[in-house]
Write a structure and sequence with these properties.
Blueprint: H1 12-20, H2 31-40, E1 44-48, E2 51-54, H3 55-71, E3 79-82, H4 88-99, E4 103-106, H5 113-123, E5 127-131, H6 141-148, E6 153-157, H7 166-169, E7 188-193, E8 203-207, H8 208-222, E9 229-232, H9 239-243, H10 246-253, E10 256-259, H11 265-275, E11 279-282, H12 284-296, H13 298-302, E12 309-313, H14 319-329, E13 332-339, E14 342-346, H15 353-358, E15 362-363, E16 369-373, E17 386-391, H16 403-409, E18 416-425, E19 428-434, E20 438-441, E21 444-447, H17 448-455, E22 461-471, E23 475-484, H18 493-503, E24 513-516, H19 530-541
Parallel strand pairs: 1-10, 3-4, 3-5, 5-6, 9-10, 11-12, 12-13, 23-24
Antiparallel strand pairs: 1-2, 7-8, 13-14, 14-15, 16-17, 17-18, 18-19, 20-21, 22-23
Helix pairs in contact: 2-3, 2-10, 3-4, 8-10, 12-14
The protein binds ligand J2J.
Ligand J2J binds next to helix 9, strand 13, strand 18 and strand 19.
Length: 542
């Protein structure tokens, strides 16, 4: 194959501007590793359980895999669907695929059959890499299905059979062919996952140029250095722990990434103490758990002595909680408001406390253009809430193969409308609401329409609406309002959960609550009145 993976390019004038300003350096993302080899090949890049990988190891292993994959004929124009847990292999595979110009999607480990099948359908991967530790690949059924659908090669971490064992494919083999290379820097390097608000999960093509800029700039803003010891406890493929400044930012600076299986505080505190971790990105519910453990147990709190900086983002973070971070955890706080589509905002390390605690920061780049718009699409005054629209040197220009959705998500000037409601003051943003039909369950995003469609596949359900309901721990939980067919048996939550799980959705997408109603309220224009549904839940709790 020698075609390219399609994407919507930036207009020429903007692309020229981003190059002139030095944002786009026309080098592939693999330069992040190449840069470390001469100076610090022996330095530790990744600590993963009792395994330690130097930069030289990371380079050699990714080259081993790249060489073997290239030998099978994989290269430009090919895509890969990858689903790995928080292990060093996730980065090794990522760099291996980048090296030979195979464009990967990193599915989350929490994704199940529905999400995996959907990503598979969209990118038609020639290669699938999964793990026997995941329910989907425990037996051979799903793997055989994917082979039948055209996955020419399927590798599984820890398989017995060397022919398909990722561990075996990482051992030295055929050398990387001279002519194999990453995709051109202005083309797609990999796909990021969209949190989504539509019926099917959308993919975000990210180019080397745009992603690399967001990483280099984030490294500056977050003060990442070769001394940084970064704890990756969020799902490693997610945009936040990957790039804001993320593991890739740490590799760029020559620091060390310490893998954790989850943000669960007991394990993380032990790892921080043992590996002298200095930096960690977290979502707000995890911060709350960390605060509780540190508060309850002074011995535990001492384990955090090396921790210098906590980045918090992904969902609304209450100011009162933010203020407790330095006090109780003894580290600095940096708020992050980012999106896999591009735009990332940070509070700055030298910002005064009122900005650090009460805002979600300002954009990375002087060339991030941000508009805050009223319902008619006109700019609002500073201090007034409005819908966020943005374009810039690392904000994408179109979802993969989604012309209809792109027509709605982008305006005539190429600004991406994120669906967030923000207030801007002196350039700093606060996230105050949302107009997209999405539930943000502690940083995990749920597209209401996706779940409603799946609920409606149940023979006894005639109408379904999924809305957010406030939750003390997660910030938001989901509630499904259902109208049942006349005369149908009463359906209980367990049966409904079984229905959804059988369809194969990730567990975080299961509605936390169900409410059965005789009809859904409608707005004047006949749409489901979700505001009223949300209000009825709040009143219920009062
Ligand atoms: C409120 N809402 C926030 C915040 C994101 C860094 C950090 C986070 C993400 C991320 C990311 C928020 N306060 N601080 O990609 O690089 C909500 C908004 C936003 C959506 C994006 C990164 N930080 N959000 O969360 O693609 O609604 O990226 O549009 O998963 O999360 O979600 P996602």
């Amino acid at each position: 194959a020698s075609s390219m993976v399609d994407f919507t390019p930036w207009p020429q004038d903007l692309a020229a501007r981003y190059r002139d300003a030095g944002y786009w350096i026309d080098r592939p993302l693999t330069r992040i590793l190449d840069g470390q080899l001469s100076a610090s090949g022996a330095h530790e890049a990744i600590i993963c359980g009792d395994r330690r990988f130097t930069y030289a190891d990371l380079d050699a292993l990714s080259r081993n895999l790249a060489g073997r994959l290239a030998e099978t004929g994989l290269g430009h124009g090919d895509t890969a669907l990858v689903q790995l847990p928080n292990l060093a292999e996730l980065y090794i595979v990522f760099f291996a695929l980048l090296r030979i110009g195979v464009v990967p999607v990193n599915a989350l480990f929490s994704h199940r059959r529905m999400e995996m099948a959907e990503y598979f359908r969209q990118v038609e991967p020639a290669l699938v890499i999964g793990s026997r530790g995941h329910e989907l690949f425990r037996d051979n059924q799903f793997a055989d299905e994917l082979r039948g659908l055209g996955a020419g090669l399927l590798l599984l971490l820890d398989d017995e059979d060397p022919a398909i064992s990722l561990k075996h494919w990482l051992t030295p083999g055929p050398a990387l062919p001279e002519n194999s290379a990453p995709t051109p820097p202005h083309e797609v390097a990999f796909f990021q996952l969209s949190g989504g608000s539509t019926g099917t999960p959308k993919l975000i093509p990210r180019t080397h140029n745009d992603y690399d800029y967001s990483i280099r700039a984030s490294v500056e803003i977050c003060g990442v250095t070769a001394e940084t010891r970064f704890l990756c406890a969020l799902p490693a493929g997610h945009n936040f722990p990957l790039s804001s400044p993320g593991a890739l930012g740490v590799f760029h600076a020559g620091g060390t990434v310490v893998m954790a299986p989850s943000p669960e505080p007991m394990t993380c505190f032990d790892l921080i103490a043992a590996e002298r971790v200095t930096m960690v990105p977290l979502v707000p519910p995890a911060v709350a758990l960390w605060l509780r453990l540190a508060e309850d147990d002074p011995v535990r709190r001492e384990q955090l002595a090396s921790l210098d900086l906590m980045l918090v983002g992904g969902a609304s973070f209450a100011e009162a909680t933010a203020r407790r971070v330095p006090e109780l955890l003894g580290c600095r706080l940096q708020q992050v408001f980012g999106m896999a589509e591009g735009l990332v905002n940070y509070t700055r390390l030298d910002d005064p406390p009122e900005l650090v605690f009460a805002t979600q920061g300002r954009p990375i780049s002087p060339d991030d253009e941000v508009r805050v718009l009223d319902e008619a699409g006109n700019p609002v005054q500073d201090g007034t809430p409005g819908a966020l629209a943005t374009r810039g040197p690392y904000t994408f220009r179109g979802y993969y193969r989604s012309p209809e959705h792109n027509a709605r998500a982008f305006d005539a000037d190429g600004f991406y409308h994120s669906g967030d409601v923000v207030v801007r003051e002196s350039g700093y943003l606060r996230v105050v609401g949302r107009i997209k039909d999405q539930i943000n369950r502690g940083g995990e995003k749920i597209a209401a329409e996706e779940i409603e469609n799946l609920l409606l596949r149940h023979a006894d359900i005639t109408h379904a609406a999924l809305v957010a309901t406030p939750d003390a721990h997660l910030g938001e939980k989901s509630c499904a309002f259902l109208v049942l067919r006349d005369g149908s048996e009463k359906l209980g939550p367990p049966a409904l959960r079984r229905h959804l799980l059988a369809l194969g959705i990730a567990e975080y997408k299961l509605p936390d609550r169900f409410r059965f109603v005789s009809a859904l309220p409608l707005t004047a224009v006949g749409k489901i009145d979700k505001r009223r549904l949300r209000e009825s839940l709040v009143n219920e709790n009062a």
